[in-house]
């Protein structure tokens, strides 16, 4: 099959300029094709015709044909399907046909912008309103390269959106979405284009049937992400309802889509609006319920969203919600064996204790248990879990320093044990890896903080028996410059 990006280099004979009837015949012939190969070839010819023609006006029959051509790039709902786990094979040849549809419309609107009579532009755009509405949905459904799409479709979708924005004299995607519907959709409507789309989505993505429409679901998530503060507030209920439906699905791809929408919603609406009608509490409960998921891609999106809504929900002095969540996160960290999840958990424990502040003292023993457990186990060349544990230890010492003295011996033990472990391993090689260097720096940083908080640590490090077991790291400990530290905390 030919490369769709080569469409401009293909010859076409007997191109007749300014004859819309010829274009209509080509489009009509394309719609009558039963084979994908024939459809693609005719779409190529249509694109070439438009490329070499000058479209000066638009007729209603042509518009109807263009809308039907656009449907070739829209995956219809799976109405009669009983299960909703999709594979690439479920979407047939859409990934092959869509690029040619996008190329055709890109050429068409370039031609329209260049040659259409400016005095009739608004009337022509009104005639093309439904087509533009559909094309925005097509772009949203392909730009993130889902199952029915490809990298090529994603690139061409972005190009088509740029062309539409240029044709409609819009500087940003939001400017296009915010155009009045009376200009694009219906002369009697006063809504914006995005308001019409949200209403359309609310009807077709209800809790009962959104799973049958994966294409519109993907398009919805992309279009919603283009709406920013303060405009998103007008659609908060609709966006929240559909996003929570995505989140509650059993498939990770839908969970991630729901998390994307919710994070955007939380970031682009005011805290007060989220608190009205307990919206924030509903979102928090739904997000917290997803902590049982053990897929790294879902958790990467979940925790930032969860921590953001937590700041809005938990206004109490005792930070009850924060402590409940931290307690659950610590429990998951201590019981997890998969390295990729351990890395995720440790980094998010670090983030959460920063929100909790000094009250993380309530969890001090268990936090230090995480540090000890994680520092004992290697986790690959990057050593992300160990680095995360050292960062956690550093934050714990900084935040909970009034209680650290009771745990100073344990902290000193695990840090020195780590130093001996990582430096003894490379003692005879004479080579220091990037991860080893970072761990050495963080470990020494923790020791410096510990010495400031607990001056007695200096006495332990200077004990003669200590030197016998630390000969591998003597040169590293020299960087502490113990004699330069004061004997009491400043």
UniProtKB/TrEMBL annotation:
Q: Could you name the domain of life of the organism this protein comes from?
A: Eukaryota
- SUPFAM superfamilies recorded for this chain? ARM repeat
Q: Name one GO cellular component term.
A: TTT Hsp90 cochaperone complex
Q: Which family does it belong to?
A: Belongs to the TTI2 family.
What is the name of this protein? Answer: TELO2-interacting protein 2-like
Source organism of the structure: Biomphalaria glabrata
